[in-house]
Amino acid sequence: MKYFKMLKKIYAAALLSLVLSGCTSKNDKLFTLLDEDDTGIDYRNMLRESDDMNVMNYSYFYNGAGVAVGDINNDGLQDLLFTGNMVKNRLYINKGNFEFENITDKSGIASKQGWCTGATMVDINADGHLDIYISRSADIDPERRKNLLFINNGDLTFTEKAEEYGLADHGYSTQASFFDYDKDGDLDMFLINHSLQQYTTGVQENVQLRKEQNPDFANKLYRNDNGKFKDISAEAGITSNVLTFGLGLAVSDINNDSWLDIYVSNDFNEPDYMFINNGNGTFTDKLTESMSQISMYSMGSDVADYNNDGLPDMVTLDMLPESNETQKMHSGAENFDKMQFLFDRGFYFQFSRNMLQKNNGDGTFSEIGQIAGISNTDWSWAALFSDLDRDGKKDLFVTNGYVKDYTDMDFLKYTMDETIRSRQQGNTVVAKDFIEKMPTIVQSNYVFQNLGNDRFEKKNTEWGLDQKGISAGAVYADLDNDGDMDLVVSNTNENASVYRNNSELLNKNSFLRVQLKGDKQNSLGFGAKVVIYAKGVKYFQEQIPVRGFQSSVDPVLNFGLGENQIIDSLLIIWPNDKSQVMKNVKVNQTLTLDIKNANLDLKFNPIPAGDKYLVNTSSVNFTHTENQFNDFTVQTLLPNYLSRPGPTMAKADFNGDGIEDLFIGGASGQAGALFTQSSAGDFIKKNSSSLDADAQYEDTASEFFDMDGDGDLDLYVGSGGYEFGPDSPWLQDRIYINDGKGNFIKKTTGLPKMLSSTGTVRSSDIDGDGDIDLFAGSRVSPGMYPSTPESKILINDGKGNFTDGTAAIAPEIKYAGMVSDAVWIDVNQDKVNDLIIVGEWMPIRIFVNQKGKLKDRSTEYIKFGSSGWWNTIYADDMDADGDQDLVIGNLGLNAQFKASEKEPMSIYYKDFDENGSVDPIFCYYIGGVSYPAASRDDLMDQLPSLKSKFLEYHKYANATINDLFTADQLKDANMLKAVLLETVYLENTGKGFNLKPLPVEAQYAPVYAIASSDIDKDGKKDLVLAGNNSWTRIKFGHFTSSNGTLLSGNGKGEFTYVPQWKSGLNIRGNVRSLKMFSKGKNSGNQFVFGINNAPVKTVKN
Q1: Is residue 523 a contact partner of residue 37, using CB atoms and an 8 Å limit?
Q2: What would you report as the CA-atom Rg of the chain, rounded to the nearest whole angstrom?
Q3: What secondary structure does DSSP assign to 551-607, as a single string?
Q4: Angle 645-648-651 from CA coordinates, rounded to 5°
Q5: DSSP 3-state of 561
Q6: Which of 357, 424, 813, 1080 could form a disulfide with 681 if both were Cys (CB 3.0 to 4.6 A apart)?
Q7: What's the CA gap between 938 and 953, in Å, rounded?
């Protein structure tokens, strides 16, 4: 018996060990997918196509359904509601321990069905019980589209009363959100609706559609008038039209003025809406003045403070895939002219990718989704910011998938071919046949861990969220009250997913749950702000449960706090602007805050009081005006435009009054202009008949220097652009001689023939004879990109006559590359200036002046791979050690393509089809393989001979350069590489240049212009960077996320980003030049920004 008992103990111990090891393996990731048999949640949103109802006649047939969270029985546990498109809505009561009871039939919430979409829970009648509002769509019968309001009877049953409350809207509804927009104490409602199939296309042919209205498609603001809701959209300034396809709804105090604003994500051509609350009952759409670009097919969205600066940021979702194959299967021919046409007629810059809009605190946003790493998640629906691992930084969860992908290019080609064939044969086209041929997008949802510093990292597998499916609405909710956020996802044609968060088992991070008890008419405190301060970090959230897509999250706020064990202070600001402060709050608890205890009038201002460093001035009256030209008509596969390099600017005291003056170059068809500066810092235009006569030239580079040795400063202007032929006389550079009084006369002789597009001109006494010589760097040979153009060394005879001295002085410079800029500094401390050159697809090249000869010594001074897309180079002593350091502007990191020495970007070029034109094939790495960037259609347009090889899109989808061309075709092709895309600071050590990182904000956009000055008055030089490029391929989108960047220097070559709200910089557009003026006697430092096709902007400190 004793032996038997011992065996029994051994067996029990072994069994326990097995169970525990099983639990451990199941819980060793952040999330565990729970089985429906365990949870009792057996809901699935099943869709059944028919001839009458399918994606061919209702484009949102596969959009999926929503989820809402709330404690409907006040037992302290969050319950779940799932909406159904073609199945019944489901309501589940949380019984604890992740066990749920289906009370759908008893509750009555499925008594009226229809095509249900979004849902939210709200105590609409102020009785202390959560009611349920459900949006409906799809049905052609308006009665079956009327939205539903289920009033909670307090006994787990509900009664539908939408008509009684005035909320039975019969539009094609997606989602509603309740909040107090007018601060009268009760909850109002904003509803987004969507348009129909016939308005998804044809906008280019009929832009007047934006003026047409249909109330069934319109966004609506319903004001709560003593329990009865009234549509006041028109008087409140809420705009819509028949192109409105509202899919995402986000409510937040976007501009931090204490009034709640509204962001609507629109699918298709209509831009999103950013309705800013004016505080007087009206709203103004301020999207275009706030954002430089937005998602094209905007779907779900979220607004939250992802970077802990107290400002609400925004994410919108789109359809751009991560893999090259899927991208290629959804990419047709680009239509650049259509995009420009729509923008010119009131539409906006929209590109198909997820976008992360970082709030700059000055009313503007910087779009940084690509540098953040969250831009490509395929056909995506719900976006949710939540601190899933409780480390103090909000992570991002994204749902995606689509049942029938009608955007697949092979399917579209098949559809077109079959339709034509059927019509020719007199047969009827059957929608069902087409639908069966559509592919399905089934893949895992995405989760991104917030790493800080504007970076997110994909963690699908590591966090246990790699199950494949087709998902739509989703919520985060603490279903077991353990202080971490679980996830619930509505899937199409599959069971809903419930993921348990295992944070409490995997880390020791702290949390705080905050439950709000508002006044009677807003019992959950919708619109309240909660700010936690701990060890110098702000943790900020707004109480707005409607988030993501067609869903409403846990109304109990959950803060991840990392390793903090005590909260220094907590501030809550209620919707009535009353506030409360709590000190030394313990972590790892649920804290209930009651509006009755709020008796302060404190405001939450994440932006400290104080003056901005720079303020706008209006001292230069000049507008750069471009001629209209489409570069892509010359070379279809260009990565970017090359015809818009201006305006160039040069400064010098050309009239001899002791104050620096200014030259601004014009585009082709516009004369450049001279400005003299007054002692007050204003610039007065000086007439110049010589410049006026040369208006046809495109001014691309400029430099003031004494060419003829008479003691005054003459003007050299480089010519270029891309719209002229390769041998056009309009490409010839020009000389203008100063008469000693600041008047300039063109000198028609004195230069060799120079018929390429000049990128830069820089002067120095190269041969040591006492006069000033020139380096003229060539940017491109028009029509021949990326063939290397011819740069020159121009030797001055002392009288302003220049000869080509390249062969004798610097033969390696002749074909140095596509030069964009250069600078002369003394690199080797021999008191003679040396030349540093940068350009596109070029390494940084250093030519040392050795007795009047320029020798390439790049490898002695640059010890890293430096080939990049360089735009500009700037030299100054930033660390006060007596030598010149360098700042070099590059593309930046906020782009689809990345580059490194291991995975470089490359461009192959030659006349592959022997038709007389250069064919550039741009390639970059995706998933470890280098692929051509161009879509099949765009590539075939440039190289029709490849069509027979790639008749179908899937055959091209995984093609590399070696699949496009044979080894024999590639053997004489030229190839350039780029391995570094960051804008860089190079510290001059006296023996070389050390690469030192700049803040991530310097990488938001291409940098084309740089200046330095002690702007913050700490005795150390700071940097101003500016740039952007909107003349790019549609596939890449605009690179326009910089509004000007101020970096504060510490005198040691280290820099800190100064936020826009402090710097005062708001320089939008394509900046191409920047000059600082400090000689105005009463003007202080003034910065002049030359912006392509826009007015010059000036700021002063």
Answers
A1: no
A2: 32
A3: EE--SSEEEEEET--EEEEEEEE-TTS-EEEEEEEESSSEEEEEGGG--B-----SS
A4: 165
A5: strand
A6: 1080
A7: 12
How many other β-carbons are positioned within 10 Å of the β-carbon of residue 373? 18
Q: Which of 515, 643, 560 is nearest to 389 (CA)?
A: 560
Q: What rounded mean pLDDT belongs to the chain?
A: 94
Sequence-distant (≥ 6) Cβ neighbours of residue 724 within 8 angstroms: 668, 698, 730, 731, 782
Positive or negative, the CA dihedral 1059, 1065, 1068, 1071 is negative
Report whether 961 contacts 939 (CB < 8 A).
no
Identify the DSSP state of 387: -
Torsion angle of the four alpha carbons 690, 696, 698, 703, in this order, in degrees rounded to the nearest 10: -10
How far apart CA 565 and CA 562 sit, in angstroms, is 9
Please report, for residues 571, 629, 921, the alpha-carbon distance to residue 638 in angstroms, rounded to integers and kept in the order given: 53, 14, 9
Strand order in the sheet with 974-978: 929-932, 919-926, 905-910, 974-978
Gap between the Cα atoms of 259 and 1096, Å rounded: 34
Q: Are strands 350-351 and 294-295 parallel, antiparallel or unpaired?
A: parallel
- Per-residue confidence (pLDDT) for residue 726, from 0 to 100: 84
Per residue in 419-450, pLDDT tens? 666 666 677 666 777 888 888 999 999 999 99
Distances in Å between the Cα of 583 and the Cα atoms of 569, 572, 586 are: 4, 12, 9
Q: How many residues are given for the chain?
A: 1101
Give me the mean pLDDT over the 960-967 stretch.
97
pLDDT of 207: 86
Other beta carbons within 10 Å of 794: 25
Question: What mean pLDDT do residues 506-518 have?
Answer: 97
Q: Of 100, 103, 101, which is closest to residue 34 (Cα–Cα)?
A: 100
Question: Residue 894 and residue 293: Cα distance in Å, rounded?
Answer: 13
The C-alpha atoms of residue 759 and residue 761 are separated, in whole angstroms, by: 7
Q: What CA–CA distance (Å, rounded) separates 1093 from 623?
A: 7
User: For residue 948, how many other CB atoms are within 10 A of its CB?
Assistant: 8
Task: Indicate the helix (H) or strand (E) that contains 778.
Answer: strand 773-780
| pLDDT digits 0-9 by tens, 108-129 | 999 898 999 999 999 999 999 9
